Amino acid sequence: MWVVTRNKEKVLNCYSFNVMRNYGQKGFKYAIVGEYAHNFWGGISEILSLYPTKEDALKDLEKLNKSLMKGENLFKF
Q1: What is the three-state SS of 31-56?
Q2: How does 37-75 read in b/e, with b if 16+ C-beta sit within 10 Å?
Q3: What does the alpha-carbon distance between residue 37 and residue 44 come to, in Å, rounded to a whole number?
């Protein structure tokens, strides 16, 4: 599925999504991460959106999942 990151700087064709703990930015403890490519060492992933709580991240992940189930090809955070 094609995904536009929350900051609108990237459009990626991701095939796997997950919620991860984020340690890089104050106030944003969780992130939705999308995997979009493979290399010799494993998958290549990108942070798609940041959230203050895990519950917020899970809500958006559920929206993304519903979009996938409908067969949509593009999701914007």
Answers
A1: EEEEEEEEECCEEEEEEEEEECCHHH
A2: eeeeeeeebbbbbbbeeeebbeebbeebeebeeeeeeeb
A3: 5
- Return per-residue pLDDT of the chain as tens, 77 residues: 999 999 999 999 999 999 999 998 899 999 999 999 988 888 899 999 999 999 999 999 999 999 999 999 999 99
Task: Describe the strand order of the beta sheet including 42-51 as a list of residue ranges.
Answer: 16-25, 28-39, 42-51
Q: Which residues pair with 37 in a beta bridge?
A: 44
- pTM here is 0.89
Spatial contact of 25 and 14, defined as CB atoms under 8 Å apart = no
Q: Integer distance in angstroms from the first to the last C-alpha of the chain? A: 13
